[in-house]
């Protein structure tokens, strides 16, 4: 009988009787007695360890100057935190402003134009802000007055 080293919890989940000391586990049943889907799951786990999903790559071409979040006007910070809390369905206390840049947007679209909408063709001073919660993070474009836009999920316009 060949020896197969499988974690005890895995064998117990499969319904195999386990014997042996701390250094070795021996299944009283053969591997052939285990359900096929269980064996497939074991094989899938041994292929590669789970990996962390990378953050979305930023495609902004408008340069910004890094600043502290404390340099962002209070109205802008509140608008970003409130919007992020609503989108993630969490309390505003669960939202952290993780990163900020001072940006001059080329027009009133704040870097996120919607097709078919005309925007004022003037430069707009604003910010690029990352709001983070335990559920994830969102990238916001803002003006200096508190108007915020989340380019990843444009909301339907009335």
Task: Please describe the topology of this protein.
Blueprint: H1 8-14, E1 18-19, E2 26-27, H2 36-47, E3 64-66, H3 74-88, E4 96-105, E5 124-133, E6 136-143, E7 148-150
Antiparallel strand pairs: 1-2, 3-4, 4-5, 5-6, 6-7
Keywords, please?
alpha+beta, disordered C terminus, 158 residues, 2 domains
Query: What is the total number of structural domains?
Result: 2
Poorly predicted sequence stretches spanning 5 or more consecutive residues: 1-6, 8-29, 53-58, 154-158
Structural class: alpha+beta
The percent of residues in helical segments reads 10-25%
Mean pLDDT: 74
Overall 3D geometry? globular
β-strand amount: 15-25%
Adjacency order of strands in the biggest sheet: 3-4-5-6-7
Rg (CA only): 26 Å
Span of the ends, CA to CA: 71 Å
> Order of SSEs, N→C?
HEEHEHEEEE
What is the number of helical segments per DSSP (H or I, 4+ residues)? 3
User: Biggest β-sheet: count, sense, barrel?
Assistant: 5 strands, antiparallel
Count the beta strands.
7
Account of the protein in words:
The protein is of the alpha+beta class and 158 residues long. It folds into two domains: 8-47, no CATH class; 64-150, no CATH class. The protein is built from three helices and seven strands. It has helices at residues 8-14, 36-47, 74-88; strands at residues 18-19, 26-27, 64-66, 96-105, 124-133, 136-143, 148-150. The strands form two sheets. It has a five-stranded antiparallel beta sheet with strand order 3-4-5-6-7, covered by helices on one side. It has a two-stranded antiparallel sheet with strand order 1-2. It is globular, with a radius of gyration of 26 Å. The model is unreliable at 1-6, 8-29, 53-58 and 154-158 (pLDDT under 50).
């Amino acid at each position: 009988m060949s020896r197969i080293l499988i974690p005890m919890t895995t064998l117990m989940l499969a319904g195999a009787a386990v014997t042996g000391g701390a250094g070795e586990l021996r299944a009283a049943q053969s591997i052939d007695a285990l359900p096929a889907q269980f064996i497939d799951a074991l094989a899938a786990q041994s292929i590669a360890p789970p990996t962390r999903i990378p953050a979305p790559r930023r495609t902004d071409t408008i340069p910004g100057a890094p600043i502290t979040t404390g340099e962002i006007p209070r109205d802008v910070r509140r608008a970003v935190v409130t919007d992020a809390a609503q989108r993630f369905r969490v309390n505003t206390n669960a939202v952290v402003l993780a990163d900020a840049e001072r940006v001059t947007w080329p027009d009133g679209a704040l870097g996120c134009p919607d097709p078919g909408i005309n925007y004022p063709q003037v430069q707009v001073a604003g910010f690029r802000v990352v709001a983070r919660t335990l559920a994830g993070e969102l990238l916001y474009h803002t003006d200096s007055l508190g108007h915020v836009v989340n380019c990843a999920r444009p909301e339907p316009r009335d």
